[in-house]
Amino acid sequence: MPITAQAPFDDTTASIVLRSSDGVDFYVYKEILKCASPFFRDMFSLPQSSHTEDEVSPEGLPIIPTPEDSESLDYILRLCYPLRAPAQLTSLSLAEKVMASALKYEIDKVVDLMKEELVGLGRSSPARLYMFSCRFGLETEAQTAADILREHYREASSRTEKDFVRIATEVYSDEYGQLPAIFFYRLLRHVQSSGEELARQSFCSRSLSHSENPNGQHSYTESSIETERSLGLSSDLDNLLSAHPADIVLQSSDGFTVPTHRVVLRISSGDTILSQSEMDDCPQKDGLPLVSVSLTGEALIQLIRACYFPPACHENGHKPEDDLRLFYSAQTCNMHKIATGAKERWSSHIEREPLHSYFIACSNGWMDEACNALRHMAIEGLPASTTCVPSMCTPGTAKYYYSLLQYYNVLHQVQESTLQPIRFVHQGGETWHNPSYALSMSITPVVAYRAIKAALATYNHSSNNLVDPPRPDLEDIANPNGRGFRREPARYIRAMVHDSRVLDEGRRNAIEAVDMTTIINGAGTT
Questions:
Q1: In the chain, at which end, N or C, are there fewer CB atoms within 10 A of the end residue's CB?
Q2: Where is the BTB domain (predicted)?
Q3: Structural domains in the chain plus CATH codes
């Protein structure tokens, strides 16, 4: 049973009732809401329909349900009414709810007040303030939150992958999960930026900037199919239909019609479409059944062409985003055979674009493909802290980015315990072992300064006796005639750590030892 709000929202002579999500009725005047909010002004200017008995108050006033709870609705209305300002908020959660509603209802006065409240309350929870600000496009507030976090982590100037993951673990919460990964990435990059690199950037943009995407890589969600509306289906398919007239017509959501053959749909697992064409109330076009599908004309053309001429990965101009789009179209029409083929072709591109593919696979629940992408990233040494891709702009990918960073962290730990120490051999045959493992500055193993220093202290007395057979590109470094280890010991050690003879087997063993599926499925848990 709804209850009535406290004064002044208990005035039954008002013009409407706003009912909160927790069942509290606020009696308010339209005129006040129209003055405060363009949203309500436009809504009340529309013709009002008649209301049923359940949609009016006992006084006969129309009831408008709202998704806001009574606490936030009361605060918003008090700021709109000519009343003494309510007490300053002490709850960040309430401030967020009030701001979200003020933005939705376009109440500028409340928005301006809440910006100040949010920044004040958010200083003790800057990560949460940043998340909320990015979600609602509050650029200035997002910048403030990022600066606060950067000051908090100012000691993380080494900018190693390990520090990057540590900060991500401390900052991340489940609330980030539904946001685009790019928001989380920008925050972490900002926190670790040096003074020289620090520059004002857009934190809230849902697309990549030029500096983030210098090669202009497109998202898989962007259309790359050239329109064929004015060209017909294509000459080869037109010729086929001329020789063998169609016996069914498909209509896209934007009114484009595509003639085709039942037998082709049948062998392409188009049973859902065929069953609709056999219904008694199926409309006709030129004497043929006309079936509507929930695809655009371009997507429908691509789907029908794939039924006749399945694309191949090696075709000129073939792109993975075309396969992904075809997969979605086939899924919409329950054409599982076409969808399976499209997914398999898309998967063949994972090795070329592993990070991009990882987010696509996670978003679709393709765990095998996501794990495959992770393996390629680890083997190739792709640093997650300095790389971003367009698919990170997709909502809901932040939790997968967090999982990726956790995977790198686990991999680093396993790798350290798996890699064999660097070997130094005396001319007399005695083997010396570096007491320190190769430490990772990124997913690609690099020797940190302290490891180099330890190695030098241990092997300085035997530097003239190093006989490790050099690779061609290391001949200059390993030359014993004054240009080798004695002259550039740090460079020599770095070269050896990058030597695939030392690392490849250990790195691959470390990769195989990590349960990637568990990490991905654990997205959102901290």
A1: N
A2: 14-81
A3: 1-121 (3.30.710.10), 235-347 (3.30.710.10)
